[in-house]
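Thanks for the sequence, V.! I ran DSBA oxidoreductase right away. Repeating your input here for the record:
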Amino acid sequence: MLKKTILCAALLLPLTVQAQEPKKNYTAGNLNWSIQASWPIPAKPVDIAQSLDNKKVFILGSDAKVYIFTPDGKQLGVLPVDQGVSAIDIAARGEMLYLANEKAKTYTAIDVSFNQKIDITGAPVRGKEDAPVTLVLFSDFECPWCGKLEPVLAELLAKNPDKLRIVFKHLPLPMHQQAEAASLASIAAQKQGKFWEMHDALFQITTWTPTVIDETAQRIGLDMVRYKADVAGQEVQMQLAKDKSDAQLADISATPSLFINGRPARDRSLPALQKMVDEAVTGGGAK
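Predicted structure:
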């Protein structure tokens, strides 16, 4: 049987591969082509799949391992599989790996994820500052799924007051017209020591209008002169830009996105998140 493998901390150390320079252009009749990249692989290839976002290449080797690379040849990790695996496929972004075993006549689906190191400097924290487990949340105040997750996270924190801290990172999505303004407003509130009050109030908004964010800021008691200056100021804008950049570095494009001690949390149910917290405590994973 294929052993369950979590492709996170168990990944082998990356293999440094120097991609070759693109070759010259070639022509044969009406056909034109040029080699964009070429690099060596550690084993005889059996099958290959590339993610639709062009960020990951999966190569099944004859040594019963799936090698994962970036398109320029940087090895991201190695996943061992059964000897009988003869074909692979992947989900659109490489988040799932599918195996066909010709000997055992089996199909296997494997969840694939990579741990991420996320800079939380300056981000608001809820819970004990020195808690051994850090949950980093990328969220959007106008995102309905983010709002539905909030009670789950509140209960998770209540169940783990000495183990867990929650760090909030902003990722306002372009399709939400007021989301970026809400993020800027909450960062301005953070400068007055009232981020979580603003956070909670913003997630209570059911009808988003151009004036509702400022009305919310006034309702929680912010100094409105300072608030408006901060919202328009460079420091607040730069903090939001940093969170967006951190999301891009962590390969995040949707909200809510969660990481527990760097490990992506795809199942956002309370039991699944509690299990990950417990594993992080017993495993001693880095924050």
